[in-house]
Amino acid sequence: MINLETMLSDNAKNMKKSAIRELLKLVARPDIISFAGGLPAPDTFPVDDLRAAANVVFDKHAAKALQYGTTEGDTDLKAEVIKFEARQGVSIKDDNLLIVSGSQQALDMIPKLFLNPGDYVIAGRPTYLGALNAIQSYQGKVLGIPFTAELDGFDMNALEQSYAQLVKGGGKAKYIYVIPDFQNPAGLCWSLEKRKALLQFAYKNGLFILEDSPYREIRFLGEPIPSIYQLDQQGENRGVVINLKTFSKILAPGTRTGWIMAHADVINKLVVAKQAMDLCTNVFAQKWLAEYLKTGKIYDQIKKTCANYREKRNFMVEMLDKYMPKRADVRWTKPEGGLFLWIILPSFISTDDLLIKAIEQEKVAFVAGSGFYFDDPERNAMRINFSYSGKDQIEEGIKRLARVIAKEIQEHESGKGGQNQPLGV
Amino acid sequence: MINLETMLSDNAKNMKKSAIRELLKLVARPDIISFAGGLPAPDTFPVDDLRAAANVVFDKHAAKALQYGTTEGDTDLKAEVIKFEARQGVSIKDDNLLIVSGSQQALDMIPKLFLNPGDYVIAGRPTYLGALNAIQSYQGKVLGIPFTAELDGFDMNALEQSYAQLVKGGGKAKYIYVIPDFQNPAGLCWSLEKRKALLQFAYKNGLFILEDSPYREIRFLGEPIPSIYQLDQQGENRGVVINLKTFSKILAPGTRTGWIMAHADVINKLVVAKQAMDLCTNVFAQKWLAEYLKTGKIYDQIKKTCANYREKRNFMVEMLDKYMPKRADVRWTKPEGGLFLWIILPSFISTDDLLIKAIEQEKVAFVAGSGFYFDDPERNAMRINFSYSGKDQIEEGIKRLARVIAKEIQEHESGKGGQNQPLGV
To answer: Would you say the ipTM is above 0.90?
Structure first.
């Protein structure tokens, strides 16, 4: 073999293996209760309805569904997506829409389109690691912005200051990456006020906003807040927001289909990029989704999924209240939607180290918080998923998690946990 | 809107819209006979068998098929692909195999993995434009190598000379891109001798070979020649060949699923790249293909497709013999497989110009040859597809094509076509 390392591009040298996907392999053992994945509950998948829709495709559209399709996306699916968005008050035309092979493809296309090596993306601390991985695979950098203590969006002062410093130092930012609705990993939801402030910031500084909305429809408590894409549409309509959506959370991830809504000029450029990336999204899957959407069952499907996750989220919060150590420095988010809770532990605990103990000693898994930072990670938090496990597993898993955390605190306070301290500071 | 051009990456500025895909839109009019696309014949799609396989997935594997999958690919599909390859004498293990979202995704992953801006890929003149577009989207360059007059592979002297010159000038090549079996666009097939010589060249110079084999199984005449991947395996087994395969031509493009065979170290790096690109290939499609392959019907399916294309290819060659101007400088390839013929016209004809006349005056379309060159294109050739059209369309289309070519020759020889001459030289 050729010495592979000497042949790799600088892009490749900058790529990181996703900690989560590697971990998912480790925790596939049946004796481990895993809150690590980001998987929807399989009992929400409408198997019979999807089978019926697939059979309509075989009956009526087989020759088209089995052939190559256009890069822009299947005409039928696009028409259905436009209706779906209209029902939520988002008005788009055909040329504002591109069908993609899941949101992750969009997260890869945007840095490819905008970033030269060393260019910056502004993003939250923490933020979705799949977005960080994609940015790094083009040698992009991330200007990390902390959230407010209320978790209602960026600390806007910190944003202003960090950005001014970046510009002063000659840094070039191209876009702001945010997940305003039930963010991965922390489950936080941006307030209307903060969404408006971010849009104004983008206008003022000539930046795009990449608004990633995989969980937007998975709101099981409270009232929807307009997306930043909508706020731009309803206001100055400058077209600076690129909005990503997906069928992964509202229907089924195995469909690997999402969509991008953006200004027609941006969509045009993305189409050119996508041509060279995969020619077109899975044509059968697109026709199949179009037939499913035509039945109108997606709206009840979303309601059903929200009800399922509301119950599980409530139950998980109840179990955390019941079993976790009662301390001011042990706390967790109580999200109104999405798939994840974020648990913050005392600053002397490193969840990177805790994870190994949790798997080995208690057979319970989570994702250590450090993976959700581009640099200088906080190490005393973890992401746990409440959509995938059943109630029995949730109760038993939280019991185990609480035990390993209590033990860690106890060891620290009795002076035994000292070797981990520096990591938690 | 922000001034988009000022925000684009250098990668994006280097991206080219695919001439073919743009053209496909133009020629969608029902009155035009198009030989431009590269579409399989829809009557070869085994709709009932594929429907049955999809229903097995809904019956037995719905929860898995609708969920996220691993980046490496579905275990069942990988096992079936390993069997499929074994039957052709290619022996691979699980860690030599990565399932991808169509071959085009692989053609995008390889330059991302290997090319820094300005790095070179060695490729034929002409070669597949989707590969060229992907290389350009990472600012890669192409060292174009002419084929021999016998069209049995690269002119190896030209390869040696061009490569020596590149190295002397400080240029860095990373891999050689070839389509040895029934190349797109010219339909040519590399001889065994030339395959061996290319492998030796790669060994000697420490280069990878990217062997793109979408048409390998679509051989309708003659005997199979070992792939370069096989030659390496059966010989020194240095693992320098990366082989791309796809279900698009042997089954149906709408499945958007292909596979990469390579050394395990290369596969490992590609898995990391793919994680950030789309997480995993369409999971439903993978399970569906696995169930279809389990029936063993793919082998008869390939035979049936080959028979279909053999008949059409023979008929198209017959029609060309019948209708085209009889001149030594009007000739075409007679491929033993694949989907395309390559027609070479007198050097004074530019097919870029001829295409417009063909569409407007005769309502027949092809792909101008110039699109298949990275630089300094030859302009007197065209690619025509024989898999998609029916026999009636083939006869009528070739008649029309012959008329527009004859007219062009006549005008040139009577002195009227002068304005096009410089382009054809």
So the answer is: yes
Among the candidates B275, B297, B319, a domain finishes at B297
Domain that holds residue B219: 47-297
Number of structural domains chain A divides into: 2
Asked if the C-beta of A36 comes within 8 angstroms of chain B's C-beta atoms, the answer is: no
Is residue B218 domain-resident? Answer: yes
Q: What's the pLDDT band for B29 if we cut at 50, 70, 90?
A: confident
Surface of B (225-254) touching A: CB under 8 A = 238-240, 248, 252-254
Residues A223 and A86 in one domain: yes
| C-alpha span between B254 and A267 (Å, rounded) | 23
Is A14 touching B (CB cutoff 8 A)? no
Contacts of B130 in chain A (CB under 8 A): 275-276, 279
Q: What single letter denotes the amino acid at residue A118?
A: G
Long-range contacts: A409-416, Cβ < 8 Å, 24+? A409/A325, A409/A327, A409/A330, A409/A346, A409/A349, A412/A346, A412/A348, A412/A349
Which residues in A lie closer than 8 A to residue B38 (C-beta atoms)?
Answer: 68
Tens digit of pLDDT for each residue in A32-85? 999 998 899 999 999 999 999 999 999 999 999 999 999 999 999 999 999 999
pTM value surpassing 0.90: yes
Specify the range with the lowest mean pLDDT, choosing from A6-20, A225-239, B109-123, B336-350.
A6-20
Shortest Cα–Cα distance, A294 to chain B (Å) = 19
B17 shares its domain with B121? no
**Would you call A54 and B50 a contact, using CB atoms and an 8 Å cutoff?**
no
For chain A, the first-to-last Cα distance in angstroms comes to 44
Q: Which of A255, A274, A297 is the last residue of a domain?
A: A297
Domain containing B195 — which CATH number?
3.40.640.10
Would the CB atoms of A18 and B282 count as touching at under 8 Å? no
* B13 lies within 8 A of chain A by CB: no
B273 to chain A, any CB pair closer than 8 A? The answer is: yes
Burial letters for B112-148: b for 16+ Cβ neighbours within 10 Å, e otherwise?
bbbbbeebbbbbbbbbbbbbbbbbbbbbbbbbbbebe
Domain of A336: which CATH number? 3.90.1150.10
* CB nearest A265 (choices: B4, B252, B285): B4
Residues A29, A138 within the same domain: no
| CB within 8 Å of B32: residues ≥ 6 apart | B359, B363, B364, B365
Q: Indicate whether A103 and A146 sit together in one domain.
A: yes
Please report the pLDDT score of residue A20 as a whole number: 64
Distance from CA of A271 to the nearest CA of B (A): 8
Q: Say if residue A102 is in the same domain as residue A89.
A: yes
